[in-house]
Amino acid sequence: MLDKMNAIQPAISGDPAHSTNDITELDAVSLSRAIQARQVSCVETLDAFLGQVARLNPQVNALVALQPEEELRQQAQRLDAELALGTWRGPLHGFPQAPKDLMPAKGMVTTKGSPIFKGQVSNSDAVVFERMRQGGAVFIGRSNTPEFGLGGQTFNSVYGTTGNAFNPGKTAGGSSGGAAAAVALRMMPVADGSDMMGSLRTPAAFNNVFGMRTTPGCIPHGPTEEVFFQQFSVAGPMARNIPDLALLLSVQSGFDARLPLTYQHGNIDFTEPLQRDFKGSRIGWLGDLGGHLAMEPELKALCEQACKTFEAIGCQVEPVLPKFDFERLWRAWLTLRSFNVAGNNAALYRDATQRALLKPEAVWEIEHGLALSGSDVFNAAKDRSAWYQVLRSLFQTYDYLILPATQVLPFDAAMHWPVQVNGRIMDTYHRWMEVVVPATMAGLPALAVPAGFGATGLPAGLQILGPTQADWSVLQIGHAYDQASEYSRVRSPLLA
Fold first, then answer.
1. Would you state the pLDDT for residue 313?
2. 222: left (phi over 0), alpha (psi -120 to 50) or beta
3. What is the pLDDT of residues 473-483, one digit of tens each?
């Protein structure tokens, strides 16, 4: 990292009035070190990123509920004053951030993408936002998300649709679509997101950035009314490269007594060097699960081509098909997902006035969840456990498993969701995202990495899955993959 810092010094030294491009083009690790060394001020950093937001956000609508600039500048000035006195809060000191609009952020509107909560101001922070704020982040607004985070397309009736960083007429994915587009367009150096059904992985793939679904418990996600059963939704980082991803993860992760299933990392430091030799590592290629998944041929071909990068770093890649009934896995997922969604939102459904404001997909999930019996839920949990044991067995042979991050390339932003994929009708609003379910159901860390571009210039992505709690190892192979490929270096044409 020191070498990286030395390499960028000429771009930021000299005239104290650094240009927007100088600052927003820095990777997050280099920017953090420049701020700590007082080569770039927090005010300059804020102004640079606000300038980028003013220029590009109107094209993609990634960031919403933007805060008054004078208040933000006063925060940045206070952070500069702390540095002058020798106080550095950590790697996010002076970083403009926009917490995803699902969990509460103190003093900011938290709509969850729903008109029911339009204008509602939170009086407390989610733990992950609390850590980012205490670490010196300046919250400039919120990142856009679909209603209640449901669906892989970021649109809602409060703020509208978020466009893709490479083509605003296409979807940015979801539910962390605003975060992904903002990172890709240098409107933020890094961004937080969350993932239940690919909400970090899908938008990362669609916007040519990195998104990490962490092992449940790695990062506190809440607190919420229920802190024991929920093990699907996790918080996680998004970034333009793996060191930047690790930088944000170092702030987000760790035990919090308010969330008893979070865990300590021992001596693991997510800012340690990521370099590692992967010669001889064995990787299982899951592909489209033996034809079970409907998948666009172009997308599948791009991911198969990207697999060769792992061979270039010395890995052995071979196809493997887990011995499991994938329809059984999908049915179990539908049960457990709807059970969670209904548990969190049933009160809204039972109020006729509020129910009328819910989008159809939310109503479908809640009604499905309310119709479940206790036996339905327990049996689905047993199916989930059986799936975990199958993958645990595979990890006795393979070091990592890989498969596409999505089943389609980014589609028209006016479309709520693909009704068919490669000639197959999708029987639910999220069947086209089934490829992300294997990692979620097994509670595994899963990293979405860029995997090339289709004929029309739209990004594709891969998922790298590791054994449970092997988050650091997944980051290491993701870094080696990124260093060997050129995919992440391709910039959005909007940045020209």
1. 98
2. left
3. 999 999 999 99
